[in-house]
Amino acid sequence: MKWAASLFAIAVAVALTGCAPMPAASTAQTDKPAISADILRFEIPADALGARDPQLSAILAKAGALAAAQKQPTTILVTALAQDFPYLNQAIWKGVPAKHAVRLSLENLTASARQPYSVSIKPTQGG
């Protein structure tokens, strides 16, 4: 049940970020890119994914809602095995209100052998 604690921590992080805008990073030089443009990133515990855990489904829906709440166009990147994309994508879209779906892009990246399953939310680049 180690993953339950991980899911709880993710849920707390999602709940705390809510719809609040992310603070701007202050740097001495404005020409340097930020280290990470991710709004939110979390790993998906393999055992929770394999069990189709209801808590994981709820967290994925909250991630979809968080992405939809952003003022700028947003990309959700899901990294997992191809057979898991239908479940993950459906769980994420459940949290997205229909009127906000236009500003979202959901991309799937097939995980390599040692790559963790993850979800990241970031501003859409070049659009």
UniProtKB/TrEMBL annotation:
It comes from the Bacteria. Residues 1-24 form the signal peptide. PROSITE patterns: PROKAR_LIPOPROTEIN. Keywords: Signal. This is Lipoprotein.
